[in-house]
Amino acid sequence: MKHVLLLAAAALTLSACGSSGEGSRASMAKEVLLADEIAQSSAVTAYDAVRLRRPGFLQTRGPKSMYASSRSSVRPAIYLNGLYHGQLETLNTIAAVEVQEIRYIDAKDATLLYGTGHVAGVIMVITKR
Fold first, then answer.
1. Which CATH number fits domain 2-6+32-127: 2.60.40.60, 3.40.50.10420, 2.170.130.10, 3.40.50.1220?
2. For a disulfide at 96, which of 22, 43, 58, 64, Cβ 3.0-4.6 Å?
C-alpha cells in the first residue's frame, strides 16, 4: 500500500509539472499505451503490445559517459504495479489482457521515482487487478 501511495504521489507531482497544451497531450499519447489500444492489437503479452504499438519504448540507449564501453548499451527497467519486476524480457510474462496501461518514464523522472540506476528509463506496467 505504501508503494501505491508513493507512486500515486509521484505521478501527481510529475503531472502537475507539465503544461496543458496540445503538445503535452501528443507527447503523453506517445508515452502511454492504454488497455483499449492493446485490445485492438494482436498482442498476447505486454512485450507484444509494446513492440506493436510503442516500439520506441524498447529502444536500447547507448552509454552516457565517455568512460563507458562503446559496445555497452542500456535498456529500460520494468516495473509492475510500482514494484521492480526485472529486465525487458519480463514483459513476456505479463498477459496483454491483464494490462490497464503501459507507460514509459524517461531516465530523469525514473530517477526521481525509483532512485539511481535507471539511465535508460523505466517501462511501468499497471495491471487491471
1. 2.170.130.10
2. 43
Among residues 55, 26, 61, 31, which one has the least CA distance to residue 43? 55
Which residue spans within 44-98 are E strands per DSSP? 77-80, 83-86
pTM for this predicted structure: 0.73
Beginning with the edge strand found earlier in the chain, give each strand of the sheet holding 122-127 in spatial order: 32-34, 99-105, 122-127, 77-80, 83-86
pLDDT, tens digit (0-9, with 9 covering 90-100), for 109-123: 999 999 998 989 999
Sequence-ordered list of residues with C-beta below 8 angstroms from that of 12, at least 6 positions apart, any chain: none
For residue 54 the three cell numbers come to 510503442
Cβ count within 10 A of residue 24: 12
Closest CA to 88 of 101, 74, 98, 100: 74
- Residue 70 pLDDT class (50, 70, 90 cuts): very low
